[in-house]
Design brief:
CATH architecture of the largest domain: 3-Layer(aba) Sandwich
CATH class of the largest domain: Alpha Beta
Largest sheet: 6 strands, antiparallel, barrel
CATH superfamily of the largest domain: HUPs
Helix content: 25-40%
CATH topology of the largest domain: Rossmann fold
Order of helices and strands: EHEHHEHHEEEHHEHHEEEEEEEEEE
Strand order of the largest sheet: 12-15-14-13-16-17
Number of domains: 3
Structural class: alpha/beta
Radius of gyration: 21 Å
Strand content: 25-35%
Distance between the termini: 59 Å
């Protein structure tokens, strides 16, 4: 097949490229340039220089053509602006989900020739086709690296053109293949964090765009002011680090964006305190709306899933969810991603979380 391969300079996309090349496909590597030039004053060193250097070395080594595609304005409009707005409203954004939905599997699709039958990435996820011909999104056997959470907002058209060549592998096996192929990225460390920030911390990004605004840290149970914070947007529900008070550990219980108050507690994890119920909006299903009431749900990337009961409202766009056990942090703006065993069904955005009774 004629395949476009999205490469990042990491080991996963490098192995993806090598596997497809060795299988005899007609592959072209594409590197996405996403930062607007005015952002570089904040970022300092060009965030893609190291990555692009590794991409070029890998493509030269494999004798694969490379194209650099600018999606800077599209990225700003769909991902960066959303992230700033959500944080400013006191919600917890997930830019990686929107990056996949609007940039990698949408804007990029529109940039390249329709001659490319598939677009391959180094995501840890698998695809299958059901008896009706619909594409299913399946989890990776590597539960820690599994990235279906980030792909949960893709639709049938996007998934039918997608290809995840390493999705069936454990991370260790991918690293071993990189060594076996002698790829330039074989010993490169994995990158973590939000897709567009690279080495820049999320707090630095928020400080650049939203500045600081001192406000009160208030104990949730008593209403007593215990200290100050630099802006509610630097905190999310369930957070422990960064509160800066002794006598804890302290956890963020909820926030009041209008008053710039962050409510905290040191009895957050008491067994008697339920953190189980929330509402979701903007429901998106990859195939069909599920008919079963009991599903599994992820509230963040990682291996942890909760069993839950979901009650979809008559509008079919909102639902109420009750977890079968407590979760560390349920925050408005987070994506709740639903599963039936190893099949990712889709997602919704948490619109309301019910703080535990203290």
């Amino acid at each position: 097949m004629k395949i476009a391969v999205l490469v990042s300079g990491g080991v996963d996309s490098s192995v993806t490229l090598a596997l497809l090349k060795k299988a005899g496909h007609d592959v072209t590597a594409f590197y996405l340039k996403i930062w607007l030039e005015e952002e570089l004053s904040f970022l300092g060193e060009c965030p893609w220089e190291d990555d692009l250097n590794f991409v070029r070395q890998t493509c030269d080594f494999l004798n694969v053509p490379l194209e650099v595609v600018s999606l800077q304005q599209e990225y700003w409009d769909a991902v960066v602006a959303y992230t700033i707005k959500e944080a400013q409203e006191g919600r917890t954004p997930n830019p990686d989900i929107l990056c996949n939905q609007f940039v990698k599997f949408d804007a990029f699709f529109k940039k390249i020739s329709a001659d490319y039958e598939k677009v391959a990435t180094g995501h840890y996820a698998q695809l299958a086709v059901d008896s009706r011909g619909k594409t299913l999104l399946k989890t990776s056997p590597d539960l820690i690296k599994d990235q279906t959470y980030f792909l949960s907002h893709l639709d049938q058209k996007q998934l039918s053109r997608a290809l995840f060549p390493i999705g069936h592998l454990q991370k260790e096996a991918v690293r071993e293949l990189a060594i076996e192929f002698n790829l330039p990225t074989a010993q490169r460390k994995d990158s973590y964090g939000i897709c567009f920030l690279g080495k820049i911390s999320f707090d630095e990004f928020l400080k650049h765009h939203l500045s600081t605004k001192p406000g009160d840290l208030i104990e949730f149970e008593t209403g007593i002011k215990l200290g100050m914070h630099n802006g509610f947007w630097f905190h999310t529900v369930g957070q422990r680090k960064g509160i800066g008070l002794s006598g804890g550990p302290w956890y963020v219980v909820t926030k009041d964006p209008q008053k710039n108050i962050v409510y905290i507690s040191k009895t957050y994890h008491d067994a008697s305190k339920d953190r189980k119920e929330f509402a979701v909006e903007k429901l998106h299903w990859i195939t069909d709306q599920p008919t079963m009431k009991t599903l599994s749900v992820k509230l963040r990337h990682g291996a942890e899933k909760h069993l839950c009961t979901i009650s979809i409202n008559e509008d079919n766009t909102t639902a109420n969810v009750t977890l079968h056990e407590n979760d560390q942090g349920i925050a408005p703006g987070q994506f709740a991603v639903f599963y039936d065993n190893d099949t990712c069904l889709g997602c919704g955005v948490i619109s309301l979380s019910i703080p535990p009774s203290f």
